[in-house]
Amino acid sequence: MSLHRRPRQAQPCSRLALGALACLLAAAATAAEPDTSEADRWAQLQRWLDDAPQPQTVRARFEQERHSPLLAEPVRSRGRLWSAGDVAKLALDEPAPLEMRIGPGRMEILYVQDRVLEVYPAMPQTLPITAARPDLQQLAEGFRLRELAESDGNQATATLEAHGDMRDHLVSLEIMFDRARGVVTGAALVDPAGDQTVMTLADIEIGAEVTGDDLALSAPTGVRVVYPAGQPGDAEAR
C-alpha cells in the first residue's frame, strides 16, 4: 500500500487511498456523532464540505508510514505534494525517488531510477489525493460511511468501509480534513493483507502557485511505459 512499493498486478491502486492523503493524527477526531443512518452521515459530510472554503491549489510536504504484520519496523518515507483542480502529483524523496501523477481517469507512477512508468486507470480511493476535497458521490461507489467524528476545533474524520469490488484493494479508509480551510489533511488505510498505511501532511500551503511544471512528471530519457492493469483505449504513448 505504500508509495514506494509496486502494486500487485491484480491490485493496481491499492496503495493509494489516500487518496488519500495523510493522517493528521487520528487523535484529532474524538467525538463521534449520534447514531444515525448512513444516508444521514453522507448528508452531514456533504454539508460540512459545502460550508467549507474551496481552495483550488495545495502544496505540502508529507510523511508516510506503512505497518505490516511481516515487518518488524514500519517503513517510513517522505515527499512533496502539489494539487490543482482535479490533478495532483506526489514526489517521493526517500527512500527512493518516485513520482505519482493522478488526473481524470488516469494514474501514472514513475520509478525514476528504474526508468519505468506504470499507467493505471484512476480509482475512487485516489480521490482524496486528486483534489482539495473528496468527491462524495465517487467515494460512495466503493465505500460505506460508517462514522463521522469531529474535534473541538475544525478537524473532522470520516471512517469508510470498502464494499463490492473495492474490497479487493482496501478494507477501510479514514479521511481527515480541516473544515475551516476546506482541505483534506490526511488519510489512513488498511489493505486486505493487513498492512496499514498512514500519511501525514506538513507545511500545507493553500492557494499557493502550482505550475504545469510542478504537476508534470520528470520522466528521464528512455523511460519504458507499462500498463499493469491493461492498456486503456485512449492511452497516449509517451
What does this structure look like?
This protein is mainly beta and 238 residues long. Strands 1-8-9-10-11-12-2-3-4-5-6-7-13 form a 13-stranded mixed sheet. Residues 1-35, 127-131 and 234-238 have low confidence and may be disordered. The protein has helices spanning 38-51, 127-130, 136-142, 212-215, and strands at 31-32, 57-67, 75-84, 87-94, 98-103, 106-111, 116-120, 143-150, 155-162, 172-178, 183-190, 196-206, 224-226.
Short description:
The chain is mostly beta strands and 238 residues long.
How many helical stretches?
A: 4
Low-confidence stretches: 1-35, 127-131, 234-238
Q: What gross morphology would you assign?
A: globular
Q: Helix coverage percent of residues?
A: 10-25%
Question: How many strand units?
Answer: 13
Strand content: 35-45%
Structural class: mainly beta
Biggest sheet strand line-up: 1-8-9-10-11-12-2-3-4-5-6-7-13
What does the main sheet amount to?
Answer: 13 strands, mixed
- Compressed to H and E, one letter per element, the order equals EHEEEEEEHHEEEEEHE
How far do the termini sit from each other?
A: 26 Å
**Using only CA atoms, what is the Rg?**
17 Å
Whole-number average pLDDT? Answer: 77
